[in-house]
Specification:
Elements lengths: L2 H9 L10 H7 L3 E10 L4 E10 L2 E6 L8 E4 L4 E4 L1 E6 L8 H5 L3 E11 L3 H10 L3 E7 L22 H10 L4 E7 L2 H4 L3 H12 L6 E4 L7 H5 L7 E3 L18 H8 L3 E2 L11 H9 L23 H10 L4 H7 L2 H6 L17 E14 L5 E15 L2 E2 L2
Parallel strand pairs: 1-4, 1-5, 6-7, 7-8, 8-9, 9-10, 10-11, 11-12
Antiparallel strand pairs: 1-2, 2-3, 5-13, 13-14, 14-15
Helix pairs in contact: 5-7, 11-12
């Protein structure tokens, strides 16, 4: 290990191996060995105290007593060792919250969910090019994206949902754009939500990419919106309260919602800050066996300091709701990777996978968690980021 790596390990409170082990490690062919942790890799069915070995940025082995003479050995002291987290719904449009901030949270892959549209897509691509982690984009069907200049996308009319412009932008930037975003709440689309959705689908169809719809206080009842969706499309803010959420007036899950999941529609949490979820809806849905497919943060600048904070904090809320650590990790790794075909080789620690690895603390105590309406619940466990590797390289 070079001196810089040794100092970096020491500063993070993780022990580094003596320099004398370097040559033996080279003979063993292992660059990095992460040991002393509880490895949770839902894609492999692993939840055990085992080691993870890395060579040339690739996972080579997961097991007990691996390669004691690796070039660099990091003992994580009982922390969780999980695949690099994938946050399928963030807003990286703001210079004050660059992707590097998510990186420090253990998020190695993130998806900007509609911050920009075809008219200003270049600005979010520049952010992605400068990112230390992996940023991909959901193109907003609204020409200028989420709240351009303080205006909502469609309150002034449907013309900004230009299908031709959206298709041209996707074609030009297909290596960055992995889907299309449509915000359908009344405060964004007014009475035009169904038109907006249809335009988003038309824009996405030639490229075989999914549409993510933002629900909560839509003009059109949710079953009608769901009827337009195709397998692989995504509903975010799934626990938004009524009107037109996933529950009926008696708190029962709509049969059309369960049917949508059966035919391949994916449901994402999307914490955010404003009217996207409350504890009572989440608790009712969980009691009816309707957990999220993916757990995302919907993180923006204000969310960094309130309610959201980071993706591990959001994952912790679902342990309050009865999910195990392995189940919540699955929602931000294996399940998130399955949401976009471009991520098919991510979200796992299987040998041969890219060595994106997050080290998380799982603390026990009393922790306060809040929803978008000021509702509080107390949890006994909380996840927090400790360290992250991207392609086998430790983040600064």
């Amino acid at each position: 290990m070079k001196r810089r790596s040794f100092v970096k390990s020491a500063l993070l409170g993780l022990p580094a191996v003596p320099v004398a082990n370097r040559l033996l490690g080279a003979e063993a062919g292992t660059d990095l060995l992460i040991t002393g942790g509880r490895v949770i890799d839902p894609a492999s069915g692993i939840d055990a105290m085992v080691d993870v070995a890395v060579r040339d940025g690739i996972i080579t082995s997961v097991g007990r007593d691996l390669f004691p003479n690796a070039l660099q050995i990091v003992d994580v002291g009982g922390r969780l060792v999980v695949p690099g987290l994938i946050d399928v719904h963030v807003h990286a449009r703001d210079a004050e919250l660059p992707p590097a901030a998510n990186f420090s949270d253990g998020v190695t892959t993130l998806v900007d969910a509609g911050s920009r549209g075809a008219g200003n897509i270049d600005s979010i691509i520049r952010i992605g090019e400068a990112a230390p982690n992996r940023l991909r984009i959901l193109l907003n069907i609204g020409m200028y994206g989420n709240n351009p200049g303080g205006r909502s996308e469609f309150l002034d009319g449907i013309a900004t949902g230009d299908v031709g412009m959206a298709r041209a932008a996707i074609h030009e930037h297909r290596d960055w754009i992995v889907g299309v975003k449509a915000r359908l709440s009344r405060g964004v689309s007014a009475e035009r939500d169904l038109q907006v959705l249809k335009r988003a689908i038309l824009a996405s169809e030639p490229f075989g990419i999914p549409v993510m719809i933002h629900i909560g206080d839509t003009s059109t009842p949710l079953p009608q919106l769901l009827s337009q969706l195709r397998p692989g499309d995504i509903v975010t803010h799934m626990y938004a309260p009524t009107p037109n959420g996933i529950l009926d007036d008696n708190g029962r899950l709509l049969p059309e919602v369960r049917a949508a999941r059966r035919r391949g529609i994916r449901f994402d949490f999307g914490n955010g800050l404003n009217e996207h979820w409350d504890w009572t809806v989440a608790e009712a849905a969980m009691a009816q066996d309707f957990p999220p497919d993916t757990i995302s943060s919907d993180l923006n600048v204000p969310g960094r300091n309130a309610q959201v904070f980071n993706l591990p904090n959001v994952l912790s809320k679902f342990m309050v709701l009865g999910m195990s650590p392995g189940e919540v990790i699955a929602c931000a790794t294996q399940n998130a990777a399955a949401t976009f075909s471009e991520f098919s080789d991510l979200g796992t620690l299987k040998p041969g996978a890219i060595a994106d690895i997050a080290i998380l603390d799982l603390a026990e105590g009393e922790f306060d968690f809040v929803d978008n309406y000021g509702g509080h619940r107390t949890g006994s466990r909380k996840l927090s980021p400790s360290r992250v590797y991207f392609g086998g390289v430790a983040a600064l």
